[in-house]
Every structure is written in C-alpha cells, then in structure tokens.
Amino acid sequence: MDRIAITGGARLMGEIPISGAKNSAIKLMAASLLTDEPLRLTNMPRLADTRLLARLLRRLGTEVVEQDGENGPETILHTREIVSALAPYDLVRQMRASFNVLGPLIARTGHAKVSLPGGCTIGARPVDLHLEALRALGASIDLHEGYVYAQAPRGLIGAEIAFPFVSVGATEHAMLAAVLAKGTSVLTNAACEPELGDLADCLNAMGAKVSGAGTSTIVIEGVQRLHGATHSVIPDRIETGTYALAAAMAGGEVRLTNTRCDFVDALLVKMEEAGVEVTRHDDGMTIKRNGSRLRAVEIETDPYPGFATDLQAQFMALMTLADGESVIKETIFENRFMHAPELSRLGAEIAVQGGEARVRGVETLEGAPVMATDLRASVSLVIAALAARGETMVSRVYHLDRGFERLEEKLSACGASVRRIAGDGEPED
Ligand code: EPZ
Fold first, then answer.
1. 44/79 Cα distance (integer angstroms)
2. Which class for 353: exposed (0-12), middle (13-18), buried (19 or more C-beta within 10 A)?
3. Low-confidence ranges of the chain (pLDDT < 50)
4. Which residue in 331, 337, 376 sits closest to 359, CA to CA?
5. Burial annotation 253-269 (CB, 10 A radius, 16+ → b, else e)
6. Is 202 a catalytic residue?
7. By C-alpha distance, which of 195, 232, 238, 240 is closest to 17?
C-alpha cells in the first residue's frame, strides 16, 4: 500500500484551490436515483469515496460519466431505470454513506434491499434514526441477516419527523425520500450543515419543493416526479479547514481559494484566538503565521455552526506545539481520538479521558513512522509532520485518498516536502 513521506520544517507559501465537498457530493450522487433524467454535478471532487459510490450506482442502473467540464471536473449521472434495488454488503461496508441510497430506491421503486453499514473506527454509528424516518414516511422496514428490507409499494407519505438529536445523515436521508412522498413532510431538529442546503438546492433544481434547509426545521412538499438538472457542488469546508490548519502549523502565508469563510467560521475564530492571522476574502481566505508561538485554546465539537468534529483531529495537531494546555472535547462521536497516540509518537503530550483530550504543548515534534486510522485522523498526522523535525512516514494512506484530492500536489505547490511512495501491493499489518 502507498505511504506518504513528509519532511517537516518548510514554511508554506502560495495558493491552494479547494475542491467540491466530498460529504455533499456523495449525497448529491444518490439524489440522481430519484429521476430518469440526467443529473450533471459540477465542481466534483475526484476521490476514492465518489468512485466507490459510482460503482454502487452503476450496479443499481445509473450511467456515470466523469468528464472535464468548462469549469473543472464534473459527473453526469443518468438512471433511466433502476435495474437492481440491492446495495450489497461488500460495497456499503466500505463507505457508510452508501446506505443513503435506501431512501431514493424506496421512493423511486417502492422497494429496496440495502446492507446495514456496520461499525466504524470512530464509533458505533447506528442508523436507527434513518430507519425511523423512513418508517415515519410509511415504509415497512425489516432487518434480516445484516440487510434492511424496505417496502412502500403504494409510495411514501409525507410525515412529521422530529429527530431526537441532530444527525446529518438521517436528515439528508429523510429529505432524499420525502421529496417524492405524497403530501408534506416537516423535519424538526434537523441538521443545519451546509451540505443540507446544498442537497436541498440540488433537489429543488430537479423540481422538488424543499424549504428551510440550513435551519432546524425543513419543510418538504412532495412532488410526483423529479427531472434532470445541473448543480455545482459547494466547496469542501473540511478540506478548507484542514489546509488552513496546515498553513498555521507550518507557518508562512497561504491563500485558500474557491471556498467560503462562513462555512468554517467556528474554526477561524479559534485559530485567531490561538494567534493565527486570518484575512477573509470573497472567494476564500489567507492564513498567515510568522514564527511566533501559538497560544493553547479550548474547543468543543458541535453540530454546525459549531466546531466541526471533522476538524477536531487537525486542530489537535496544531495544539501540540501551542504554549500551554488545550482541552479538546469531542461530543459527536465516542471514539474519535485515535490520532492522539499517533501524534504522541511524534512527541506530542496528549492525555485522553473519555470524550476529552488534554494537549500540553511541546516545543518541538520529531518525525516518526505513524499510521493513519481514519480519514481526518490521517490528515492530522500530515499536519503535525509539516512542523516536525526530520521525516515522518504515514502509512495506510488509503484513508487520506477517501477524502483529500491531490493532497501531495496541493501541499507541494506551496513548498512542503510531501511525497507519495507507491506500495508494493503487499497489505500492511
Ligand atoms: C456525517 O456523518 C459526515 N459524513 C461525517 O464525516 C461527520 O463527522 C458527521 O456527519 C458529523 O458532522 C458524511 O457526510 C458522509 P451523524 P453522519 O448522523 O451523517 C449518531 C468524514 O470524515 N447517530 O450526524 O454519519 C452517530 O453515531 C465523516 O467525512 C445515531 O445514533 O453523522 C453520531 O454519534 C466522518 N443514529 C451522531 O449521531 C443514527 O441513526 C451524529 O452522526 C444516526 C446517527
């Protein structure tokens, strides 16, 4: 398997264009199942996760064409008919978000058999809220041998769905199913993440009637059919935040383009509190830090607009070199500190207890071999390595490839010493 070698110490200078949001793109791709006309998605990221979902969609009957459009990479998805309503375990277990094809399949064909996604490294991550939402919309749901069997032969029916806590995936799933239901659905305590607004915009461009996305109450008036559309994927806020933190960690001056400051406001405020200089522009931001030591600050992850859990690992990397003790509270997932022991291999001082990590800043980090454990954890190791003395070798980089497009290229263009070492095909331990 591939590894990434990083030699720390270079300041970053230059510009990094941000790609389309992975976590939006994969839900938008699932939305293409809802119509027999083509859906054209522009500003598409090219990632292992989007390729994986394309594989599943092709099995279900979608023609997927990736091409370079006038404004960059785009994907055209055309599901003339659903040829199979089965999403098998081997594909769903590799990417949980594949589970979100369940709602569109029931909405379009009245039945589906979709594998349960199973556990994952950052926590148990059940799908009970997804299933409750689909039941509320009138689907009958049975679970056998690891599969969800869903039926709604007469179509789904609009319903009031009050989520007991905020779930991005369950809110998106309910929206994807309710757009073709008979009558009106009202989702309360809905997730407010920007990806929800993006999904609603795309569905509305396809003829759906969704209002309130981006607030905690979403109203969906079901329509009989949806049609084709062209939609541009929003910028990836996690990629944005990750490169902002990389620039702050390495020092220097980096301009992030093709993105939005409001998507990462909670992060930028904390970075400024720590002593990083942030200049906000219409199409992005400039991150600057010159030599001076950062201050330790506390963060607590929360649903949007709070501090994103998907940026917690990267922020922890930054805090390893800050002056003082930083307390990092993770409230979304129960097991999302797997990067802490790996950061400690580079010399960081981190004590984890339950959902809280205490990071006592050290003067220097030192390169070491480390192992990626999940997507965001792995990039936190890259960030730490940028400021570590000597070389850090990150293995299991397939995690990185799931969500960061051309990472080595983007960082190298700003002067970082990052290179990929192609694997010999042998699996790692
Ligand atoms: C999305 O996951 C993102 N994934 C995650 O990003 C992100 O960390 C998360 O939202 C929170 O922002 C995608 O969009 C593909 P949730 P999702 O449902 O939708 C519990 C990344 O690195 N829960 O908001 O799965 C759940 O276990 C990934 O790109 C239930 O208990 O997250 C968690 O504790 C990692 N039952 C909490 O809710 C359910 O039915 C919030 O999860 C659903 C969720």
1. 18
2. exposed
3. 428-429
4. 337
5. bbbbebbbbebbebbbe
6. no
7. 240
* Positive/negative CA dihedral, 153, 155, 159, 165: positive
Per-residue pLDDT, 428 = 47
Domains and CATH numbers, the chain: 3-16+235-421 (3.65.10.10), 25-232 (3.65.10.10)
pLDDT digits (tens, 9 = 90+) for 153-200: 999 999 999 999 999 999 999 999 999 999 999 999 999 999 999 999
CA of 175 to the centre of ligand 1 (A): 16
Instruction: Please work out whether the CB of residue 129 comes within 6 Å of at least one atom of ligand 1.
Output: yes
| CA-proximal residue: ligand 1, atom 10 (nearest) | 168
Beta bridge partners of residue 352, listed in sequence order: 357
Q: For the chain, what is the radius of gyration of the CA atoms?
A: 22
d(C-alpha 387, C-alpha 17), whole Å: 22
Contact 117, 94 (CB under 8 A): no
pTM: 0.97
The reply to whether ligand 1 has any atom less than 6 angstroms from the CB of 319 is no
Other Cβ atoms closer than 10 A to 213: 27
Distance CA 43, CA 21 (A): 9
Q: What tens digit of pLDDT does each residue of 67-98 get?
A: 999 889 999 999 999 999 999 999 999 999 99
Predicted pLDDT of residue 291? 77
- The rounded distance, in Å, linking the Cα atoms of 292 and 286 is 17
Q: Which of 300, 309, 332, 337 is the best mutation target for the ligand 1 pocket, counting ligand atoms within 8 Å of the beta carbon and taking the most?
A: 332
Within 206-264, residue ranges assigned H as helices are 237-250
- How far is residue 230 CA from its own chain's centroid? 22
Residue 125: the pLDDT is 82
Predicted pLDDT of residue 290: 86
Residue nearest to atom 7 of ligand 1 (CA): 310
**Residue of 47, 97, 74 lying closest to 404 (CA atoms):** 47
